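ok new one. same drill as before - structure tokens go in, u give me an amino acid for every spot. 1329 of them this time. try not to just spam alanines like last time pls lmao
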């Protein structure tokens, strides 16, 4: 072969030769085949010419399409110069020229056929694809059809579809759709607008049938997306929200009172139909809004008339429109409404004894009783029978009892709380108030309140209580002791006290009181009026505060009954004011400015009675320039400043001294006083805090510049001395404050500047911290010897200005692996890589550095170099249609990112590796492994499940795409004469796997015909598990070994012995013949020969077996015998085991055609015979009645000749009843010999049931002139001969007088042969004809 492919013989054109020299001629084919994917510069073929003279030759190509090729003029090698495209140009014709140095050029027209290669992928038509699918679409429905075309030819142009991905991509949606071979997308699962996704995006793969390209068998594919929008339909009932519904409403409420609102909504979210409400069990008490769901009262509610005090409504929510099934979409719920009681009865009082009370009568409002005065607490008032009753229920029937009225404080009511009914008692609460002396009659009002209100709330009943008087009081003073005052030196008769009297509430003489002053010694100074109790001075000269300031006496009161009462008197002699106050000491105080509060205690005394106003002192500040800054306690004399004093507010000439004058006076009459000066010296302190000129400062600074100034702040201090107005600045601790320093500088008295700058050791980084600015709190403080006394603060915001100094990073790091199908469409976006840069102003560009290819963890060279294209924006596209999992399953792309705006630092990120895993698709059909062995089957010994052949296959794909299952697609038996029989269900195949090799075990599935000679041709198909499923097939030849190869081995041992030694026998036979031994049967000799003589077969056994080599060759009996005789070792052991004879087994070969002819003929004969029998039976049934009548007439004719006195004998009379004497046939009046067989008894199986002449019990007999049936005599068969015989009935009648006859009918001699025979059942004679 001198080119790619050379198909035809050359047809050169030869020009006339130059004289003396022969022109060259082409010696080559003129047609060449060139694949369209041939690379430029590839050698295609060689122009070959011969020259008889041996001249050097020059080659060239001509024609309009010669530009595709380049030819070496000396060697004739033709290479490709321009790329080929079969879709544009399928055939190229050029002229090849050759010439030597002497002759004109010889040409040859060449045809180059461009062979198709799989260089085009399927292209989807009419994209994009969108469709709407109702959610109730049936499973198996077609929802859309896509179409893709491939420009290639053959299998490369055939398009197969598959669903690659369904988004949302989860396990539930993976098999929701599938696609048919014609591109029709079919729904494979149920949809739900509410419970599942409302939108699906189906990724559809279109792949061609594969073809060669660049030396590799590849598949081209493309993808398209079908967007499926699920349309909601009205298929769900509405549903109530907020269940359960429970409400309450008071009884007798106004009509239209709202109770509660039910709410239902359409479960079909996108339909959202209008909901109408109704009450299914309407009672007229409630109504519901048709569209609002508001339940209101529509009838008068009476709690006592409602069973269980509650109403249950069945509320139905119905959608306005019918659902998709043309049914009403509705749902119901139970609403429970409790009818509550209202307080419509007030408590009432009844005069009765509980519980024997009848509350149907009118209530009482007035009651009366009596009690002794001063009765003990909780003593009930006697004579009261009061019962309170309220017919309401629960809290409305529960009421509180209380008392009111002028005497309510003296009594209490019990109980204070009654539920519905109870006995009411009035008890003494305060016995002291139950006093006859105060009143003889007391009245209280019992109030029953069941509402809790204070007005319009209650029922009441008046109780009048009559008090019974007792002598129970003694005179009593209002106080147990009295303090009295009297001025010293007062005149006699001065009244000390006139209001001290005793009282006695008792009446009569028990209420008359007289007074006496005790002890008697006091009576020299004071006395008492016995009637009025007035205290008087007897001798005022003795009253001297300085001698005896206090007198003690007892004032006693006695009533007419002798009961006494007393009170203690303390009579104080009151001093008079005769001494002025005196101030103790002088007062000079030192305080600190703005810090201390002045506290000065003024001390003074008075010589008068300290218990009187004469010695009681009062303090006050005299008016002055600083009096407003101080206050003084008028009673204690404590002088206090109103606040800290300010040194700067005091005139300089006073040198900080403040003088306050305090006036001290007593409260006597007349009032006496004195004054005192308090001097306060105020010491100066630093009491003024600094103040910033601004409350907020805003500065900016670039990142990365340590120690640079940020800005200045200023503050002032109002203090006048340097030590007090000196200011220092500091930065309060906060986030980022440690990055800054501040220095103070004086600008004048009390005026300072703070310079803020970065720490020299710190450079700000805009990209690292969370915030891009710092909020600083700057403090200004002044101190005295390190003690801080005032701080001012201001806010300073420092904005960090960004500088592009950060390297970009790829995220995430490391990059996550991605997966790409090997049949992915070129230019498909695989992923978009992400990168980040901390700088605010950046421009990131992705760069591809290197590509590495791997196949099963080993390097795959540069096969994947151009499979993918990385765009600057990080988008990774498929750049090739040559992606092949079998060539490379892992692509590693080393890449980085560059920041084009970088000002400082490295603009590149660190290198990252993107791992792209190539995912296998089902693009390789299973491949059968070569079969090197020969398969042989012995039908006779091949039972069901017996393995007869094995096939093996592998699939270059991976995963489920490589899983192979075997199946038998066709079985043909080829007879020896070449005829073929198509058979079914003879074999089955069992698939097993080991690593990536799948084995199919061909086994017997049903019994085989051992008589067939020839071979089975079994076609086995291997299918993979991919989508679309690919398959391949192979054909196996299984040769049969028929019964003609069965070998007989006879042993002189018993059957049991041969069976026990079968393994040894087979081993020795295999040793001798080197063939596999298949034992067909083992049986004794008599079973083999069929003889019934047991003596000849005693102890002999036959084993029949097949001897087959692995190549299918079977041995005949003679060859087996020769091989056994040729192996002395095996022969000796076999002889020892009893082997005597080795030979073939006779086999009768059936002739199928002859058997078929015999069967057909036999079937026809049987059919004719059946038809004949049916016709005979019909004739017999018609003639039976006639024959019976004929027999009777003949018997009558003969019987008429007998005498009338004949005696009947014997029971066996044909044609009559069973007995001859009883019930005998009246036709026969004579006797017959019962031993004579007249031939009327039919021995056939069909007519032995009865002997009655009326029974149809006879069968047809041979006609006259034919041979009668032969009888068996003495165990031998009589020949059936033709004879002249006499009618049996007639013979019987003629011999009626014979006394003895033979047991059998009369034997007649044949006139010729002399053979005797007897009739068994002749029933007719010639007259029957």
């Amino acid at each position: 072969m001198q080119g790619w492919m050379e198909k035809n013989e050359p047809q050169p054109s030869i020009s006339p030769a130059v004289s003396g020299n022969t022109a060259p001629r082409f010696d080559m084919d003129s047609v060449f085949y060139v694949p369209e994917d041939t690379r430029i510069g590839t050698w295609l073929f060689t122009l070959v010419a011969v020259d008889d003279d041996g001249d050097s030759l020059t080659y060239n190509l001509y024609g309009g399409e010669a530009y595709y090729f380049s030819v070496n003029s000396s060697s004739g090698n033709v290479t490709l110069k321009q790329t080929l495209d079969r879709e544009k140009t399928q055939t190229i014709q050029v002229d090849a020229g050759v010439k030597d140095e002497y002759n004109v050029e010889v040409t040859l027209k060449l045809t180059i056929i461009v062979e198709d290669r799989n260089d085009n992928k399927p292209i989807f038509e009419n994209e994009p694809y969108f469709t709407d699918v109702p959610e109730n679409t049936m499973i198996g429905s077609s929802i859309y059809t896509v179409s893709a075309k491939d420009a290639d030819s053959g299998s490369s142009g055939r398009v197969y579809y598959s669903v690659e991905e369904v988004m949302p991509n989860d396990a539930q949606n993976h098999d929701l759709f599938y696609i048919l071979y014609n591109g029709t997308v079919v729904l494979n699962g149920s949809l739900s607008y509410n419970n599942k996704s409302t939108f699906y995006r189906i990724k559809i793969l279109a792949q061609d049938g594969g073809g060669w390209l660049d030396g590799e068998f590849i598949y081209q594919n493309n993808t398209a997306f079908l967007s499926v929008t699920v349309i909601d339909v009205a298929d769900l009932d509405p549903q109530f929200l907020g269940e359960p519904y429970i409400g309450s409403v008071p009884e007798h409420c106004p009509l239209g009172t709202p109770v509660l609102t039910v709410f239902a909504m359409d479960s079909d979210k996108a339909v959202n139909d209008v909901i109408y409400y109704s009450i299914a069990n309407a009672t007229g008490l409630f109504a519901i809004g048709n569209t609002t769901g508001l339940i209101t009262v529509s009838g008068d509610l009476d709690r006592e008339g409602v069973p269980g005090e509650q109403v249950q409504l069945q509320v139905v929510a119905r959608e306005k429109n019918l659902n998709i099934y043309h049914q009403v979409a509705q749902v119901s719920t139970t609403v429970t409404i409790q009818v509550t009681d209202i307080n419509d009865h007030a408590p009432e009082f009844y005069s009765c004894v509980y519980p024997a009370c009848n509350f149907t009568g009118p209530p009482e409002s007035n009651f009366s009783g009596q009690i002794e005065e001063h009765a003990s607490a909780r003593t009930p008032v006697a004579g009261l029978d009061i019962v309170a009753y309220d017919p309401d229920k629960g809290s409305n029937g529960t009421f509180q009892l209380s008392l009111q009225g002028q005497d309510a404080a003296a009594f209490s009511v019990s109980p204070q709380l009654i539920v519905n009914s109870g006995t009411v008692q009035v008890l003494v609460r305060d016995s002291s108030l139950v006093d006859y002396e105060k009143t003889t009659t007391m009245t209280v009002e019992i109030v029953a309140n069941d509402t809790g209100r204070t007005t319009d709330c209650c029922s009441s009943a008046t109780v009048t209580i009559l008090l019974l008087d007792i002598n129970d009081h003694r005179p009593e003073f209002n106080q147990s002791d009295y303090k009295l005052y009297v001025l010293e030196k007062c005149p006699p008769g001065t009244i000390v006290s006139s209001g001290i009297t005793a009282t006695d509430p008792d009446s009569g003489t028990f209420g008359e009181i007289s007074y006496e002053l005790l002890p008697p010694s006091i009576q020299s100074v004071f006395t008492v009026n016995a009637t009025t109790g007035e205290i008087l001075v007897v001798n005022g000269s003795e009253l001297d505060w300085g001698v005896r300031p206090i007198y003690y006496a007892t004032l006693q009161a006695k009533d007419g009954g002798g009961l006494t009462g007393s009170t203690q008197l303390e009579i104080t002699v009151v001093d008079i004011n005769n001494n002025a106050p005196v101030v103790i000491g002088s007062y000079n105080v030192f305080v600190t400015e703005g810090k201390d509060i002045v506290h000065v205690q003024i001390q003074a005394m008075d010589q008068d009675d300290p218990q009187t106003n004469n010695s009681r002192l009062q303090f006050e500040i005299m008016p002055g320039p600083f009096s407003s800054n101080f206050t003084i306690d008028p009673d204690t004399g404590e002088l206090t400043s109103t606040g800290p004093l300010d040194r700067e507010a005091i005139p300089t000439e006073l040198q900080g001294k403040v003088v306050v004058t305090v006036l001290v006076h007593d409260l006597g009459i007349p009032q006496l006083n004195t004054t005192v000066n308090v001097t306060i010296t105020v010491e100066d302190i630093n009491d003024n805090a600094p103040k910033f000129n601004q409350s907020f400062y805003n500065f900016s600074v670039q990142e990365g510049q340590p120690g640079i100034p940020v800005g200045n702040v200023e503050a002032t201090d109002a203090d006048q001395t340097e030590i007090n107005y000196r200011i220092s600045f500091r930065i309060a601790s906060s986030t980022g404050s440690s990055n800054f320093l501040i220095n103070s500088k004086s600008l004048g008295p009390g005026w300072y500047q703070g310079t803020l700058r970065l720490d020299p050791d710190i450079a700000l980084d805009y990209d690292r911290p969370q915030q891009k600015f710092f909020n600083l709190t700057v403090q200004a403080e002044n101190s005295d010897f390190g003690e801080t006394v005032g701080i001012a603060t201001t806010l300073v915001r420092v904005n960090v200005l960004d500088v592009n100094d950060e390297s970009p990073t790829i995220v995430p790091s490391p990059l996550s692996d991605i997966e790409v199908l090997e049949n992915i469409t070129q230019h498909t976006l695989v992923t978009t890589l992400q990168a980040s840069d901390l700088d605010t102003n950046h421009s990131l560009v992705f760069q591809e550095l290197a590509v590495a290819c791997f196949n099963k963890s080993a390097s795959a060279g540069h096969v994947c170099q151009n499979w993918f294209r990385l765009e600057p924006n990080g988008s990774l596209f498929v750049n090739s249609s040559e992606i092949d999992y079998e060539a490379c399953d892992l692509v590693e792309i080393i890449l980085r990112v560059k920041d084009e705006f970088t000002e400082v630092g490295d603009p590149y990120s660190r290198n990252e590796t993107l791992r792209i895993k190539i995912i296998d698709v089902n693009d390789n059909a299973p491949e059968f492994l070569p079969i090197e062995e020969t398969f042989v089957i012995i039908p006779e010994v091949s039972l069901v499940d017996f393995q007869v052949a094995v096939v093996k296959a592998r699939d270059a794909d991976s995963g489920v795409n490589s899983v192979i299952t075997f199946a038998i697609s066709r079985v043909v038996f080829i007879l020896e004469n070449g005829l073929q029989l198509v058979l079914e269900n003879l074999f089955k195949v069992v698939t097993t796997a080991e690593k990536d090799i799948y084995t199919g075990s061909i086994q017997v599935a049903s019994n085989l015909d051992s008589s067939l000679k020839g071979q089975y041709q079994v076609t086995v198909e291997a299918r993979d598990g991919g989508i679309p499923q690919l398959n391949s097939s192979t054909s196996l030849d299984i040769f049969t070994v028929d019964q003609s190869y069965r070998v007989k081995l006879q042993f002189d041992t018993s059957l049991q012995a041969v069976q026990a030694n079968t393994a040894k026998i087979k081993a020795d036979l295999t040793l001798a013949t080197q063939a596999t031994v298949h034992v067909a049967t083992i049986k004794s000799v008599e079973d083999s020969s069929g003889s019934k003589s047991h003596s000849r077969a005693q102890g002999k056994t036959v084993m029949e077996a097949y001897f087959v080599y692995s190549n299918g060759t079977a041995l005949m009996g003679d060859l087996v015998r020769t091989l056994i005789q040729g192996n002395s070792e095996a022969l000796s052991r076999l002889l020892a085991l009893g082997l005597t004879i080795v030979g073939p087994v006779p086999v009768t070969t059936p002739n199928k055609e002859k058997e078929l002819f015999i069967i057909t003929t036999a079937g026809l004969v049987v059919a004719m015979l059946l038809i004949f029998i049916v016709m005979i039976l019909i004739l017999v049934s018609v003639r039976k009645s006639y024959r019976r009548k004929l027999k009777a007439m003949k018997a009558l004719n003969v019987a008429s000749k007998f005498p009338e006195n004949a005696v009947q004998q014997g029971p066996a009379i044909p044609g009559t009843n069973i007995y001859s004497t009883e019930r005998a046939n009246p036709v026969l009046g004579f006797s017959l010999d019962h031993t004579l067989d007249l031939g009327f008894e039919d021995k056939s199986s069909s007519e032995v049931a009865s002997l009655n002449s009326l029974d149809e019990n006879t069968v047809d007999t041979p006609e006259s002139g034919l041979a009668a049936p032969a009888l068996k005599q003495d165990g031998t068969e009589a020949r059936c001969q033709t004879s002249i015989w006499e009618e049996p009935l007639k013979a019987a009648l003629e011999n009626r007088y014979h006394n003895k006859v033979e047991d059998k009918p009369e034997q007649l001699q044949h006139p010729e042969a002399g053979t005797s025979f007897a009739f068994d059942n002749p029933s007719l004679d010639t007259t029957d004809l």
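The first strand starts at residue 25 and ends at 26. and btw The two ends are 102 Å apart (CA to CA).
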